Amino acid sequence: xxxxxxxxxxxSVQEGDSAVIKCTYSDSASNYFPWYKQELGKxxxxxxxxxxxxxxxxxxxxxxxxxxxAKHFSLHITETQPEDSAVYFCAAKGTNxxxxxxxxxxxxLIIKP
Amino acid sequence: DAEITQSPRHKITETGRQVTLACHQxxxxxxxxxxxxxxxxxxxxxxxxxxxxxxxxxxxxxxxxVSRSNTEDxxxxxxxxxxxxxxVYFCASSESYSGTGGNEQYFGPGTRLTVT
Lengths: 113, 116
Description:
The structure holds two protein chains of two kinds. By secondary structure, chain A is mainly β. Chain A is built from no helices and eleven strands. Chain A has strands spanning 4-7, 10-14, 19-25, 32-38, 45-51, 56-59, 62-67, 72-77, 86-92, 102-103, 107-112. Chain B has strands at 4-7, 10-13, 19-25, 31-38, 42-51, 54-57, 64-66, 76-78, 87-94, 106-107, 111-115. In chain B, strand 5 and strand 6 (54-57) form a beta hairpin. Chain B is globular and about 40 Å long. Chain B starts with a strand and ends with a strand. At the A-B interface, strand 5 of A face strand 5 and strand 9 of B.
């Protein structure tokens, strides 16, 4: 079945710098790749997603890139701010799955002032 | 505004007891999911439902059950609680659709369950 690996598990960056979180997936037929942000004490919330027919998507300071050949996708956050501190999860949906997502283990992002 | 709620937010129970965690959504979504979240494991799917009277097992379903009698609710029952079931539990819902790609899952605030 589908497997999603996420790296790093913890990332500490200086405020204003960029942060990059990477995920790899095993099912070459996967076609949907969302990223969720989880703040302390809350449930995860979708921040950006990308479908397999698109290589890159951007929303203000957040961007996601997809490399189907290498089976990996990445989250890029530019000009990081204190409110970006959270746990970030990547996920993938295979074509054999109607609505289920396979999740990465999460990355704790720490923004240093 | 539509929302998804979970209750209780915190629960302490003893080994062997039956426990039910409630999940209620007002999005009118057909799809509902239960996850558990443990450090180092991310989110693991316990059970899911694609509509009334439909339930399916996820990757970690042993010791858990769900029932779907209406669109709004998907209660999760631990038949005989075990210490290994100490975790944070999240309920989520999403729309159903036809076509490729995926739909956003909306998460509840979570229930922290401790089994002593």
